[in-house]
Amino acid sequence: MQYKVFGCKVNKYYTDRWLWSEYLSDKTGTFVASCVVTDSAKRKWVRFVKKEVENISGNGKIYISWCGAFKDGKAQDDFFNIYPDLAPYKDKVEVLDEAPAEDAEKQSLREDEKKQLHDDFVKSSNTTKPKIDLSKFKAAQKTQIYTRKYLLIQGWCDSFCTFCLTVQKRGRHYYRAAEDIIEEIREYEATGWKEVVLTGVNLSAWGLDNTHDIKNFSKDLVKNWVSGWGSKFASLLREILDNTSIPRLRISSLWPEFIDDDVIKILWEERIYPHFHFSIQSGSTNTLKSMARHYDWDFMKKLLDKTRNITREDGVEVSIGADLIVGFPGESEEDFMDTYNLVKDCRITKVHAFPFSAHTMGESVPAGKFKNQISDTIKKDRMNRLMALWDAVREEFKNAQKWKTLKVLVEKSSWNTWSGWSENYIECDESNFEIIAWKIERNSILVWKYK
Q1: Contact yes or no for 305/318 (Cβ under 8 A)
Q2: Percent helix, strand, coil in the chain (nearest 5)?
Q3: Same domain flag for 115 and 261
């Protein structure tokens, strides 16, 4: 089956699950992972489906999942009302749940189950490490659609940020058991693969009862610190490092409010990919408050400084990424400059920015009804300025890496060309990476100099 992924890394995880699901095993067509982060994102996959449906023949269909297709994890009955452009193709389009039935059953954790999982995790960590029998893993694993493995450790969210539509689509926060996560990583590494990307909607909230109660998180943090336990997310990372040997462990987008000093300390570990991406959204305290985020400029600046100052034994310089929204309702020029200066002063080397979307296609977000909406002209101007700054910061960072020794995971290769990413998120190929080798294969790790 063909596939097309729009949106976040969680979509990539579920695309892999769906393509190997029992339900799609005997079907033909194209699987589409949809996205609703903005109206522009919606239009992209809708256009793709309208074009792709012309290539579907026989009993084939287009199977659509993820945020554009479901609500609270279940396929939306009113899908074709929300996307009337696709209504003429009802006979060739099937709307799916968030996850295949076999996955959904595993991930439906009740509140008492989550508590028991955490209690068991604490007990196992204070006594013996999780025992996982690698002999049950087969030598050959199903072919991966990506060189790296996207591994979901947490899902959904309880924080109703005023710009966000996805919280309405995904449902409430849950997390997977530590031993389940470790087992999946070890199964993956046993078959020879080298990089795992921990992903989720709000990764750093792993182990918490919800993603909204910051006051209780702070109280738990003090209690856990006194007992020597530390933050739950930091403890999970330590368990993964202690019980796996995967060479590259990458952490996907992190919400800032649950990142404490315990997490920062773990990020010094050499097996952890030194590129840390934060879901910041804005550098302005005023705008963050309107967005219903749980932090301010001062908190974010201190966190980014701590991250930037991570010093690894291998000498690799940390890179920082950020999600940012431009033109949120009421954003003044001063508010925008707070975001602009955060990128400049903290040297954010990867910017994923987009103009605020009021969401006019079928579903809406609270901020879409706020007063003082920003004009498209101003949004475009601010986006251009921000992206020009990011481009300059990025080039400065790359130039500072010249002739440093880096490790690159090869993702594509042929007899004389190859490409991949260094551990600090620089795209490398035969033109900018000096390597002497007779044969370069996909999934191999090159160690030489970035030139």
Answers
A1: no
A2: 40, 20, 40
A3: yes
Give CA–CA dist 332/287, Å, rounded.
9
Q: How does DSSP assign 23-72, residue by residue?
A: TTTT--EEEEEE--SSHHHHHHHHHHHHHHGGG--TT-EEEEEETTTEET
Tally of domains in the chain: 3
CB atoms within 10 A of CB 201: 24
Both 184 and 58 in one domain: the answer is: no
Residues 186 and 127 in one domain: yes
Tell me how crowded residue 286 is: count the other CB atoms within 10 A of its CB: 17
Which residues are registered as beta bridge partners of 155?
174
Which of 75, 95, 115 is the C-terminal boundary of a domain?
95
Query: pLDDT by residue (tens digit) across 324-359?
Result: 999 999 999 999 999 999 999 999 999 999 999 998
- 91 Cβ contact partners less than 8 Å away, ≥ 6 residues apart: none
Q: H/E element holding 390? A: helix 376-400
Residue 79: pLDDT band (50, 70, 90) is very high
> Is there a contact between 176 and 229 (Cβ–Cβ < 8 Å)?
no
User: Dihedral of CA 180/182/187/193: which sign?
Assistant: positive
Whole-angstrom distance, CA of residue 398 vs CA of residue 412: 21
Q: Which of 80-89, 104-113, 160-169, 427-436 has the lowest mean pLDDT?
A: 104-113
Whether residues 217 and 362 share a domain: the answer is: yes
Other Cβ atoms less than 10 A from the Cβ of 302: the count is 12
Residues 211 and 354 in one domain: yes
Rounded to 5°, the CA angle 147-153-157 comes to: 125
Predicted local distance difference test score (pLDDT) of residue 104: 55
Q: What type of residue is 56?
A: I
The rounded Cα 395 to chain-centroid distance in angstroms is 24
- For 32-41, what is each residue's pLDDT tens digit? 999 888 889 8
* Pair (50, 199) in one structural domain: no
What is the C-alpha separation between 205 and 208, in angstroms, rounded?
6
Per DSSP, the three-state class of 198 is strand
Looking at residue 50, its amino acid is K
154 and 43 housed in the same domain: no
Q: Which of 29, 63, 95 is the last residue of a domain?
A: 95
**What number is the average pLDDT over the span 88-109?**
77
d(CA 148, CA 3): 17
Residue 381's domain comprises: 101-397
d(CA 411, CA 284) in angstroms, rounded, equals: 38
Instruction: Report which secondary-structure segment, H or E, holds 298.
Output: helix 297-308
Contact 4, 65 (CB under 8 A): no
